[in-house]
Amino acid sequence: MSLAEVRDDWTRLGTDDPLWAILSHADKRGGQWDEREFLETGRTEIDAAVAWLDRLGVRPATERALDFGCGAGRLSIALTDHFAEVVGIDIAEPMLVHARRLDCAGQVRYLHNTRPDLACLQTGTIDFCYSNLVLQHMPPELAAGYLREFLRVLRPGGAVVVGIPDLYRRSAVGLLSRFTPRPLARLVQRHVLGYPAPMRMHTMPGDAVRALAAANGARVVAAEEFDNDPHWRHMRYVIVKNAPGGR
């Protein structure tokens, strides 16, 4: 699966049913999300993440935050309650159209990025990076590349909170997602389930996340299971970038 395919799939999802594509609740399909309710879920999630950092004693500076895979801005807008500047990045331009519309106050700087890196951001310019329910839709090699980029753009002492499943559960959907050939999975999602475009799921083991962090001058300081999903075990990690010459 190429990055161009990821872009094409999410461009279609962002055109046809953007809010449901981001939070795929069964009763919200077909444009049924109330926009205020949708944005409130983002505030709840970001407030909980900031509280988690505080409990861990992880206190990045509050100058600049990044929301990677920002979609329609659900989390980007919520981050403006905690950071002076917020940058939202997404691969699908239609998603960014919705994000800019929902960001009535124009508080977020949204960037369209179709590269396998974050060359649009300078090294060491971000205090906090948040990415949830995003990397799971990319092949592991692409996801790992972006995770390395999160750490590159982070300032020393800055933090990443990233969510990505670490395993498939032994449910019918989980096992089918793991073992079904990709063309067949796309066919089922498009023509049986009626998705505007397929949403492929991938995992990254926790050991791989820790090794990648260590190889890029950072460390995982906490990990927790969240989002009680019957098909994948979703994990969320707090990664802190080491200060020069130390931990």
From TrEMBL:
Residues 66-162 form the Methyltransferase type domain. It comes from the Bacteria. PANTHER family: TRANS-ACONITATE 2-METHYLTRANSFERASE, TRANS-ACONITATE 2-METHYLTRANSFERASE-RELATED. This is Methyltransferase family protein. Keywords: Methyltransferase, Transferase. Pfam families: Methyltransf_11. GO terms for molecular function: S-adenosylmethionine-dependent methyltransferase activity. The lineage of its organism: Bacteria, Bacillati, Actinomycetota, Actinomycetes, Streptosporangiales. It comes from Murinocardiopsis flavida. GO terms for biological process: methylation. SUPFAM superfamilies: S-adenosyl-L-methionine-dependent methyltransferases.
